[in-house]
Amino acid sequence: LGYSYELAAADKGYWDYAGHRGRAALDLELPYETGANIFMEYFIKNYGDANPMTGLSREDKITTYSVGAGRKFAGNVEVSLNETYTRHASNVNIYDFERSVFGISISKKF
């Protein structure tokens, strides 16, 4: 569980922003050398000056959800699956999007 306040100062005032970020995560150890995790984050960014292309002062609301699971195998090998969904809502159309990313990883510790 966490909160942070971000303040960014850029060369151009329309890239300056103040933001509030809240997050929560849960890691679970499960039977048979398996584990799972859940993550959620909400980030509000309010930009400074109006963007010269749009005439708008940009406001973004970014929500991210992630779930994952993994299993350890013999020889220090772990296989993990992860899905992350992001909804980036903005009052400026070119910054308004959603995406979903699925990942599979295999790792070995030496």
**What would the principal axes of the Cα set say about the shape?**
elongated
Average pLDDT works out at 95
Structural class: mainly beta
Radius of gyration: 19 Å
Q: Give me the strand/helix succession.
A: EEEEEE
What share of the residues does DSSP label as strand, in percent?
over 45%
In quaternary terms, these chains amount to single chain
Number of strands: 6
Distance N to C terminus: 32 Å
**Spans with pLDDT under 50 lasting ≥5 residues?**
none
The major pleated sheet works out as: 6 strands, antiparallel
Approximate helicity band: under 10%
**Helix segment count?**
0
Please give the order of strands in the largest beta sheet.
Answer: 1-2-3-4-5-6
